Amino acid sequence: MAKITLRGLRHSYEPSPKGPEDYALKAIDLDWSDGGAYALLGPSGCGKSTLLNIISGLLVPSEGQVLFDDHDVTALPPDRRNIAQVFQFPVIYDTMSVYDNLAFPLRNRGVPEARVAERVGEIAEMLDVTDLLRTRAAGLSPDNKQKISMGRGLVRDDVNVVMFDEPLTVIDPHLKWKLRSKLKELHARVGATMIYVTHDQTEALTFADQVVVMQDGEIVQIGTPVELFERPAHTFVGHFIGSPGMNVLPAVQDGARVLFEGHSVALEGPVTGGAGRLEIGIRPEFIELAETGLPATVRRVADVGRHNVVEAVVGKTSVKLVVEGDVPAPGSDVHLGFRPDQTRAYRDGWLATEREST
Amino acid sequence: MRTHNQKAWFFVLPVLLLVAFNALIPMMTVVNYSVQETFGNNVFFWEGLRWFQELLNSDRFHAALGRQFLFTGIILAVEIPLGIIIALAMPRKGMWVPVCLVLMALPMLIPWNVVGAMWNIFTLPRIGMLGYFMNDVLGVHYDMTQNPTAAWITIVIMDVWHWTSLVVLLCYAGLVSIPDAYYQAAKIDGASGWAVFRHIQLPKMKQVLTIAILLRFMDSFNIYTEPFVLTGGGPGNSTTLLSIDLVKIALGQFDLGPAAAMSLIYFAVTLLVSWLFYTLMTKDDEP
User: At the fourth CATH level, which superfamily is domain A243-351?
Assistant: First the structure.
């Protein structure tokens, strides 16, 4: 188990990168404490797998350092870093039994057979695969195969960090939930630092204590699930997390006021200075139908189960809001109320309001 | 109630006809010959199982069968490991992949009799490059027209040269289909190079390797053209493999009855070994 520090990491797959666009990772600095559960969240191609492979040692970064407990491991190969990784597709040694699969990482390191039996037994019990130990791994179902892959990662008690690279991609939806809670439980029992890479916000938010949101090779925001939801530091985070995502509305500044489609909108605090494209961000959960407020026309209503998502048009811009209970008919005129403490300005995508201290 | 529609049989008919005309009917002709004696002129005499009994007790047949198994055994023992090693050594990505693949495929594109003729000229003493090099430069007596050992070495090398590529290409196809994650996981699990081969590469190659061995077995067991052109079965009878012997009996001696009986036994042996091998290799594939 270890604390992980990434210092000034940059990586390019090109031999001689010219501009920032050639970098798959641009300037990553991170501190992860020992025993935490972290998620790397971002769309496909944002560099999260690259980052993971650098931490595991499968990839050597172009620049920067990887430190485990303040010890530089940047140049060490994966097997000398004491890490474990679970891949997107289950990796199973087909010819071996489940037991031998789980024992493989231990036997490769010359662990005595008695200790191997003990550890494999413990892990199998944690994963509920004790009954399967004697069967051949090749015939298992995908979710059991992935459990065995996880088991191989967890079987060593000296691992610094266990990494999961979108491990639930090939798992059936109804089993995803089970495996996810299993993982959470395992983290609590094993206590190893765990890093979970995914593009699925539900997986990231349920698994991790702290989520790192990435976009285009950069870290956009680091925070707890609640922070990411309630106060996105970037419109990308607001949009990527949440369903539907945050409304990002074009706005203009007029002195101290911010105008949206010609209407003044109250924000959580004063807009910070600077130039650039101004936008208002507000989550659909924090807009309500009101007696007064922004005049809008309902365009369509979608029933998503627990509530309705109403899409209304203000001027020329469409705004989504979540409505519980009665919904207006499409085509009707309504007024929208924005909750001021959840309404923020963003400049060039980045948060540009200061929260008023109360 | 399920209604049975017999129309499907109609669609099977073309295949049935095709198989009948190119396999069943010629085969039955051979069966017909194998129980009779003929001296030409379309006159036949019933002989029952005599040819089969004679053949199974004939030293000549035993010797040819022995040589055939020896030849097939040697080339499998060389080509399969060699093919695997070459496939493992080939690059998985990059500009050298097409180059390697084309180079590998080249020998297989050459017609069999041309391969025989090439190696004949190549190894003839004084004339051929290899023959000249062995005899006049190294001073080793190497003459496949005189020396049975040299003849055997030559046909084995020729077959290895001609057909190892097939094993290589099949194994290579098996290897490139292994996802990177397996290698990465093995690295993280601390697996040695041998363990990676034994537990990842070999199992993933098993199916293509089964096919490769089967194809190479059948092909080499039925080999005719190349050794015929190269050595003609000689010197003496030292490289007279089953098919060469069969042609000698059928066309050289015009003993159609015994030749037909031999064909059937030959066919039965090929079929039996292939079936046994395939059954053994695939028996634990069922989960």
Answer: Nucleic acid-binding proteins (2.40.50.140)
